[in-house]
Amino acid sequence: MSIWVVVADSAKARFLTAEKGGEKLTEVHALEHGEGRLREHDMISDRPGRAFDSVGGGRHAMSSQVSPKKQETIKFAKQVADYLEAGRNSNSFDRLYVMAAPEFLGHLRDHFSDSLAQLVIASIDKNFVDGEIDVIQAQLPDFL
Q1: Per-residue confidence in pLDDT tens, the chain, 144 aa
Q2: What are the residues whose beta carbons fall under 8 Å from the beta carbon of 68, sequence distance 6 or more?
Q3: Phi, psi of 63 (to 5 degrees)
Q4: How far apart (Å, rounded) are the C-alpha atoms in residues 139 and 144?
Q5: Dihedral angle at the C-alpha atoms of 30, 131, 8, 32, nearest 10 degrees?
Q6: CA distances for 1 relative to 18, 20, 24, 140, angstroms
Q7: What is the pTM of this model?
Q8: 45: Cβ–Cβ under 8 A, 6 or more apart, which residues?
Q9: Cα dihedral sign for 36, 40, 45, 51?
Q10: For 37-60, b where at least 16 C-beta lie within 10 A, e where not — what string?
Q11: pLDDT confidence of residue 38
Q12: Residue 34: beta bridge partners?
């Protein structure tokens, strides 16, 4: 029985594993997403484009429905979910714990397949991505 723990936020994801309950976690992989650390105004190169009204001579700024920061968060959540899905497809784990910053956790769940979601034993909506392994493990149930 192999257990995976993913600890993530919008800029970093760590993948930890234990072969059986009671065993100390070991970090086996990490993903970095530098864009996740940028501030909103650092992602925007200039002012929004201009559009003309279909009636009259008015003009207004065009805006996107989703901010660039949120787009990058969603993109990274998909990348993390794809990595987990690849692990599921190769039978690398049969139980999964997900620990992520609250907003990122929601985006991550949006990208989980039904098969992957069934392997999730618990989700913890806290950000411990930079925490020591012992601190992360202390957040998980004793039977891990």
Answers
A1: 799 999 999 999 999 999 877 789 999 999 998 754 545 544 455 555 555 555 555 555 555 577 888 899 999 999 999 999 999 999 999 999 999 999 999 999 999 999 999 999 999 999 999 999 999 999 988 656
A2: 40, 43, 44
A3: -130, 150
A4: 10
A5: -40
A6: 9, 6, 14, 17
A7: 0.79
A8: none
A9: positive
A10: ebeeeeeeeeeeeeeeeeeeeeee
A11: 47
A12: none
The 3-state DSSP class for residue 126 equals coil
Q: Which domains does the chain have, with CATH numbers?
A: 3-35+64-138 (3.30.420.60)
Q: Which residue has the tokens 């784990």?
A: 93
pLDDT of residue 52: 54
Please count the other Cβ atoms lying within 10 Å of the Cβ belonging to residue 28: 12
Nearest CA-CA partner of 13 in 109, 83, 89, 103:
83
